[in-house]
Amino acid sequence: MSALDQTLAALADPHRRRTIELLAQRPRAAGELARALDLSPSAMSRHLKTLRQGGLVEETHPEFDARVRVYALRPEPMVHLLRWLEESERLWSAQLLAFKAHIESGG
Fold it and tell me: Going from the N-terminus, what domains does the chain have, and what CATH number goes with each?
C-alpha cells in the first residue's frame, strides 16, 4: 500500500477526520481526544494507531509522565495528499474542457 493509500484509508473514518481537525488546533493527549469524540479509550487508541500507521500523527510522552501520550499532526502526508488532489483536479479540468469543446463543436 502506498503512502497516499495509507493516508486516504486513515482519513476514511469520520472519527479519525475529527481527530485530525482537533489536532490541527494543537497537540492533545489521547484521553482528551477520547473525551472530545465521546469514544472509549480503547476505541480512541485504535483510531490513533491507524492515524500513526498512516503517518498523519506522531506520538510523544511528556517528561513528567511516560504513561501519557500526546499526539500532534505530521504535515508531510497532507502535503502529498494535496499534491495528488491538485493533479487530479488538473486532469479532470482538462478532460471536462475537452468534452465541452467536443459538445460545442457538434460532437
Answer: 3-104 (1.10.10.10)
